[in-house]
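note to self: dont lose this again. the chain is below, predicted strucutre after it. 293 aa total, dont forget to put it in the shared folder this time
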Amino acid sequence: MQNNKSIVKAAGWMIASIALILLMAVSSRAITTEIDVFQAMEMRAVIAFFMLLPLVYREGGIRAMGTRILLKHIGRNAAHYVGQYAWLMGLTLIPLAQVISIEFTAPIWAAFLAAIFLGERLTWRKGVVILFGLAGVLLIVRPGGAPLNPGHLITLVAALAFAISFIATKALTRFDSATKILFWMLVVQAAIGLVPALRVWVWPSAAIWPWIFLFAFAGAFAHFCMAKALHHAEATVVMPMDYLRVPLSALLGYVLYAEAVDNVTALGAGLIVIGNLFNLRRPNARRVESTPS
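---
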């Protein structure tokens, strides 16, 4: 049983994670007005690596970051890099609330992919969850109702890539700490993105640099905060808190960018959230490995 103190700690880490993800979305919109997404991702990885060093040295230094599962880190971060690129591209094309809503289909696709590639049983409950997710996406995208915005499809690719990354992360957390997982995320993604970034590189203006540092900090440490939240409480406690991002992103989009959310989009987002909550209530949902601190 978890005590109230652990749940309060988990809530604190999760609130920090939500705030950082929303800050990353806002800062990414600011910097991609000047620089390409490839360059933004490369700068984030390099700058965040140096921001992470105090935590690395607290855990024993660079040598302590050695891992026996390097190939799993590379595979996970290749998928996550694709997802992050598509997510950031989506932010430049469609409203913030729609990006966040479609992103929340990732756990649903993860259940589907686990059934195909990991041999996990696709129960009626998981089938219902997948149907809710599909219905929600169709309501948001509304194919045939208006000219299809490529941002919807790009963001859906992000959700699928995040689902693959999520499945891979389940294996990583059994062996490596949150700091080590973040360390290898930054190293691998910096290596993957170096050549694409150099091909589109332009020197940012002075006005953009504060946004770049905020983007780097928020993009990296949102992962760390979520991992710490999962360390203090079960996924069934932590993950429903993350759904606050849906209404908060809608509010942020309205206040900062005058992006209104119509009733159909709100209904689609609601179906996606309900599907995820239904998935978390399944009988074996509490059997979740905690992330090492």
